[in-house]
Amino acid sequence: MNQAIAPTMLRMVGLVFFLFVARPSGAAIFSTIVTNGPTTNRVNLVFFSEGYTNGQLAAFLNDATNAADYFLSVEPYAEYANYFNVFAIFTNSAHTGSTHLNTQSYVAGYTYFNSTYLSPDDRLITIPPNTVDPNPNHGQGKINALLWTSYLSIFPNTNNNLPALLVNDGVSGGSDGGSSDYGKTAISSIGNVSYILVHESGHTLGDLGDEYTAAYPGYSTDDVEPNTTTNMIFSNIKWNAWIPTNTPIPTPDVDGYSVAVGLFLGAHYHTNGWYRPSYNCCMQSFYSGFCPVCQEALVLAIYGKARPMDARSPATNSLTVTNSQLLTFSVNLLQPATHALNVQWRTNNAVVADATNAIFTIWPAQLGNGTNKVEADVWDATSMVRTDSKGLLTQTNVWTLNLIRLQMDSLQWQTNGSFAFRVTGTVTNGVVVQMSTNLLQWTALQTNYFSGGNFFYTNSGAATYPRRFYRTKTLP
């Protein structure tokens, strides 16, 4: 909870740029650092400035950019970097840094979000409501106000936001904010910001627990998270899909199992009674990556905020089709970095063979009259997830089609040189029979309504012209 912990892998991500927009209120200044798509379908990592004084906007943006680069280089965030936007909101603080309670008294307004380093270890950073200030409006409430009021037009889906507070203080420290009743914010000082931010995002994004075994004075919890458990029965271990056959339960802390998933003793600041999935993980130790179980939880959390379909065409899911032209459907996919999403098209619940691309075409004649369905199933078969009980990796879009299709058949010649044919189909209004001699100009001959799904048309007598063409159309 209070240590800066992160993986060793570092990869730079694409182009980073700043886009400044007019501030909606107060001293806040909004900037775009990385944009990959609409905020309504991305995880929006939003950095807030704490302890940055007037004139330090450039320093804050530089720190936020560096933190974002590292964050998006760590798995599983690197694989799903396209699923993230990164923004920064700058507010002035009266003083640089933060309040260190082992040497300073708390004074509201010392910094904009009133952050404090908890004494005596001077590593745990929180904002109100906390042990020194119970008023959320002095801390987390300010973050909520900026996201949910000042910039609501930019972030209309507040569930998609991942707030992070950058504290302009060289003393290494951070936390997950600790105010779950009012929202959670990943807090990190700029000292070791990369390591701390990634670890704290495990809490705020993936609801992961700390895997520390050493007791922390004044802090204990009995909450069970995706990566912590008190259960020793294999079938009841939440991550048993990751545990190889013949792995001892509990799993010994020896080199033979140093990279395996098992059931390792020690978690939640307990040396006994609590277990974690891996010998080492970002939720426990410096310079370690997220273990497979924590990566799975984070991937599922990402899909809880950003869906694999960015858009679909047609945009409406209810269609009326009255012509015989080729129908085209498509989905715009939000692709991971190194593997592609899977697509399968269905019609009326039946799988269409080889229809596995983002675009699907079909002739109306291949569907029946009346109500039909065209369905696009999209899913991520990532190896990072083995258990998806909520179906977060899958998204389905269904188009309902009302096909109004007419057919002329049962042609019969009459004894006087006239003829008759039947018109069948499914229509709401009537149909009109039309005639042409050149396929260019059409004359209406008869308007009728179906009785029992069809009607018969009989011409008036022998053809005056050597050749006539007939067609039927639905009435609007």
Give a written overview of the molecule:
There is one protein chain. The protein has a seven-stranded mixed sheet, with helices on both faces. A five-stranded mixed sheet has the order 14-20-19-16-17, with no helix packed on it. Helix 1 (57-71) packs across helix 3 (193-204). It has helices spanning 57-71, 140-150, 193-204, 292-303; strands at residues 19-21, 29-34, 43-50, 84-90, 99-100, 116-117, 125-126, 161-167, 174-175, 186-189, 261-267, 270-278, 309-313, 318-321, 327-333, 342-347, 350-351, 359-362, 370-379, 394-403, 406-413, 419-425, 431-436, 443-448, 454-458, 469-474. The N and C termini lie far apart (66 Å). It has four domains: 1-205, Collagenase (Catalytic Domain) (3-Layer(aba) Sandwich); 208-290, no CATH class; 309-403, Immunoglobulin-like; 406-474. With 476 residues, the chain is mainly beta.
Order of helices and strands: EEEHEEEEHEEEHEEHEEEEEEEEEEEEEE
Shape: elongated
Assign the CATH superfamily of the largest domain.
Collagenase (Catalytic Domain)
Give the CATH topology of the largest domain: Collagenase (Catalytic Domain)
Helix content: 10-25%
The order of strands across the largest sheet is 1-2-4-3-8-10-9
Structural class: mainly beta
How much is the average pLDDT? 88
Low-confidence stretches: 1-26
Hey, roughly how much beta strand do the residues contain? 25-35%
How is the main sheet built? 7 strands, mixed
Overall CATH architecture of the largest domain: 3-Layer(aba) Sandwich
Count of runs of 4 or more consecutive helical residues: 4
- CATH top level assignment of the largest domain: Alpha Beta
State the separation between the terminal residues, measured CA to CA: 66 Å
Count of spatially separate domains: 4
- Give the radius of gyration: 32 Å
What is the strand tally? 26
